[in-house]
Amino acid sequence: MLMKKSAVIIGTLFLLLLTGCKQEPANPIEGAWNLIYAKKIVNDSVVSEYPRTFQGSDIKMWTKKNWSFVARYTQDTVTRDNYGGGTYTLNGNIYMENIVFHADKNYVGRKLRMLMTVKNDTLIQILPVDEEGVINKSDCTVERYTRLK
Fold first, then answer.
1. Average pLDDT of 101-124?
2. Is the C-alpha dihedral spanning 92, 98, 103, 106 positive or negative?
């Protein structure tokens, strides 16, 4: 009888522990991502496309609150390194990036609002967007990443 009561008490405590532990929902962008495609559109014209008009590599990483990227690009015969990072917020699919450091000092202190979608191991960000997430399709940048494993 005592053994049965102990088993019931232990089982109840285990269930309370499981239901009492509140887990944060998984952040779908956390981790490291490899840029596989990018397109910049200005005045309804594609002005650059990766990897077509330039080559290289770009890795972007997210933690719970921070982001950073490192990149090296070659266009024609010119190679340049690029990097940046800062903090971010993600509300639904509206992503706001606060730039704390960047290879181009003109970006430091800026905030970029983007539309972000994640499907399986593919992440797409489109920028800029307005407060409601509406894209100006004649002036935007589309970036597609795959998750690094």
1. 96
2. positive
